[in-house]
Structures are given as C-alpha cells and as structure tokens.
Amino acid sequence: MTIKIGDYVSSDDNEATLTVVALEGDRALCRWFVDGDVDGDEQEAWIDIAALTVL
C-alpha cells in the first residue's frame, strides 16, 4: 500500500499512532504525541517508509 501525506501509520519501534506530514524519497516525516496524550509533547522524525504500516 502506498503511503500518502495525511495517512496514519505505525512503526515496529514506536507504539504511537504517527501522522505522515511530508514525504521525501524513501522517508516520511511523521509526527506523534508522546504517550498518546494530545496535551503532551509532540515529536517529529524522518522514518524509512519500509518501516511503516498504514493503519
């Protein structure tokens, strides 16, 4: 399945639900909230698309 901007994804090394905000080559810029708490800190990282699963 093709990953698109706006997709919700998961990763084996991160138990949070991630949101794809940008794509560049074989990586996706993902954002998520620490501990799943929307009032908590937001994290952001580039992750290899091959490591992601669309939810």
Task: Outline the structure in words.
The protein is mainly beta and 55 residues long. The chain has no helices and 5 strands. A hairpin with a 2-residue loop joins strand 1 and strand 2. The protein starts with 7 loop residues before the first strand and ends with a strand. The mean pLDDT is 91.
Short recap of the structure:
This protein is an all-beta fold. It has no helices and five strands. The N and C termini lie close together (11 Å).
Spatial strand order of the main sheet: 4-3-2-1-5
Q: Report the sheet with the most strands, covering strand number, pairing sense and barrel closure.
A: 5 strands, antiparallel
Strand proportion, as a percent range, falls in over 45%
pLDDT < 50 runs, ≥5 residues:
none
**Alpha-carbon distance between the two ends:** 11 Å
Helical fraction equals under 10%
DSSP helical segment count: 0
Q: What is the ordering of alpha helices and beta strands? A: EEEEE
Report the mean per-residue pLDDT as an integer. Answer: 91
Radius of gyration: 10 Å
Secondary-structure content class:
mainly beta
Number of strands: 5
Shape annotation:
globular
Oligomeric category: single chain
Topology:
Layout: E1 8-11, E2 14-24, E3 27-33, E4 42-48, E5 52-54
Antiparallel strand pairs: 1-2, 1-5, 2-3, 3-4
Features:
single chain, 55 residues, mainly beta, five-stranded antiparallel beta sheet, 58% strand, globular
